[in-house]
Amino acid sequence: MNESIVEFEGVYKKFGDKEVFKDLNINIPKGKIVGLLGPNGSGKTTMIKMINGLTQCDKGKVKINGLKPSVKTKEIISYLPDRNHLNEDMRVKEVLKFFSDFYKDFDMKKAKDMIKNLNLDINEKIKSMSKGTKEKVALILVMSRNVKLYILDEPIGGVDPASRAYIIKTILKNYNEDSTLLISTHLINEIENICDEVIIISNGKIILKGEVDDIRENKGMSIDALFKEEFKC
Question: Rounded to an integer, what distance in angstroms lies between the CA atom of residue 131 and that of residue 133?
């Protein structure tokens, strides 16, 4: 039985003259919350796009649950991109209906419960919302699906600090614990305590991967402090 939900084997990727990955090898385990960390331009978004089948590697293999990225693998992935992808002219209730019609695994009750708990107006139009509120709606849509892999790209980047803890609580409460949750973020201190494992990537290379508790014990510092020391930020 394959214990990895995502596998990168000898992946090479180039955009124009820029080599993003030369020989990327990494597995993401099933049933874990994994933080994907790294500075801007490190390769995080390219990894995520490959997992989602939005870009292909030039050499090597990417596998999702043992399969090549395809329509079939997209059915088991719920993806929150780092940019707003919602129809600005729709009301929240219309977006919920659209997702419910489009995804057979969409749980409308769960979505409406989250809308209520986050004090959002189901009749409000997307275009009248703040950036942070739009992000909350997008997150609710993603977390209301019942899938094997959730991918969140900067899920709390535009949310005000006061709401972040509640957003993280919402994520934890509404994802299937048998699933894998991959969170890409630069707000490491906000998500460190919920991650089972972290992957730190820089210039297309994995510089650290392991269980959070083991890394803290071995390095004698938090993941956030380690990241700041490594990248002098």
Answer: 6
Cα angle 60-65-71, degrees, rounded to a multiple of 5 = 85
Number of domains in the chain: 1
CB count within 10 Å of CB 40 equals: 7
C-alpha dihedral sign at 9, 12, 15, 18: positive
> Beta strand pairing status for 59-64 and 4-15?
antiparallel
Structure tokens at 68: 């090549």
Q: In DSSP terms, which residues pair with 105 in a beta bridge?
A: none
Q: What is the CATH number of the domain that holds 45?
A: 3.40.50.300
Quote the domain boundaries for residue 155. 4-231
How far, in Å, CA of 140 to CA of 198, rounded? 24
Res 109: pLDDT: 96
Amino acid at 13: K
For the chain, count helices (H), then strands (E). Answer: 9, 9
10-residue mean pLDDT series, the chain (233 residues): 89 95 96 92 93 96 96 94 88 97 95 92 95 90 96 83 82 85 88 93 94 94 89 68
Triad 97, 183, 162: Cα angle to 5°: 80
